[in-house]
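Continuing the batch. This is chain 6 of the set; chains 1 through 5 are on the previous pages. Same settings as before, nothing changed between runs. Recording input and output for traceability.
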Amino acid sequence: MPRFVQRPGMTVDQVNRAVERERSHSLLRATMAMATLQCDNPLVAAAFAEMSQKRKARTDEAARKLALLRAESERNRVAHREGFNGLMATFRKMKQEPGRFAAHSKAQKKAMTKMGTWTEDEVAALVREVQSQLQHGGTKLNYVRVAAKVSEVTRRESDGKHRTNSQCQSAWRQTLDPNIATGAWTPEEQAACRGAVLQQRNKQRAAAAPAATSAAAAVASPAALKQPVDWAVVAVEVSKVTQNNKRRTNLQCQQAWTQTLDSNVAKGAWTPEETKACRGAVLQQRNKQRAAAAPAATSAAAAVASPAALKQPVDWADVAVEVSKVTQNNKRRTSKQCRDAWTRTLDPNIATGAWTAAEKTAFMLALEVQEGRRRTSWVEIATKVSAVLPGNERRTNNQCRKWFNDNVRTRPIKRARVVTKHGGGGPNTKKAKSSSGRGRVKSDSKAKGRASRPTKRGRGDAKGRAPKRSRAQQQAIKGTRSSFRLY
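Output for chain 6:
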């Protein structure tokens, strides 16, 4: 048995190592004692030899591991010493040139921070860490730990870059939190949002001028409109009336107000002045972008047609400001309205003619790719259809959806044909006429009081009902339609 006595202050690792060492020594003593016996049994001698070999192998392995640990410890000591010396040299440089070093470290930190869209692995890591903290009873999330866990995934995907604490906090609070309400706004939420914004506008106007006489005057005040709105406060007020213990985010409240709830947002069709202002603002930006990338454009059409200019993003906020200058009744147009109007209607690169055979082929090929998906991506379909058009012409999402509804989704049925008293389908057969253009059909024979009957199967009847088809025909039509049921 091991003769080991634990001393005070020993750690668990120290105790385990001491126990293992004592066992090895006891086994060695027992082996030596048995080896000293003059035993002529070959089995016992073989057992002694095997035990000795195992003991020697363990001893060699322990010595090898100890040598590796000592070498690694020496390397770490040297590296730490070099790192400490480098850190002290950096501190001395900071004291000598604080301004230049601060600017360099800020730029370096920005370069090492990953920007842009989050990947699925990053989102999964963030949700997993947040749920782990909430399950352990945490009332306040530690976003430093969250950023550390997310950055482990980010470094593997983006060459050493990381996500910051503020990025993780914004992603969770604005998008990934399951307590965020995502459905349509209820009337109570809309009223709460309007009331919170009007209350802030009224306070801002009262601080800049005498008290407003009405809520509408508070909103219409130019001085009040220039003041920023605290959307965090608005989100708190809206979340009080949100159903199912959900909440609305600051961004949701800001978008709902600027795009829908603001009474100063113009609704309805665009006037010719607004259309002209939108075209002029976009062409002006395109011309500036083309002039920065190449020599100055000779015309507005050349500016729009430039491939380098088309790849540059448009500042729709500036476009909205220019359009709002000509909007009637002191209303305004939002950046989303301007972007939608340009991308759907006003862009001169939108193809407006009849669809060519190449476009139809590209459309059907793109539609086959979408089969089986939960939702049809008209953006992808429009992109593939636009790839076969000459120059910079393109088809919009709405054009592709409309062509699908008119040519693929619906299959027109032949109008019913009325048979006269002569019967047959010869020259006396004429097309039926409907009083309303569709629905019931009124025939000459029915007007005279005689019943009309279809004389041939599959041609419909005098009441405008669909023609009868055989079972094989129905199965064929059903199979053809099911392959395009993507709506």
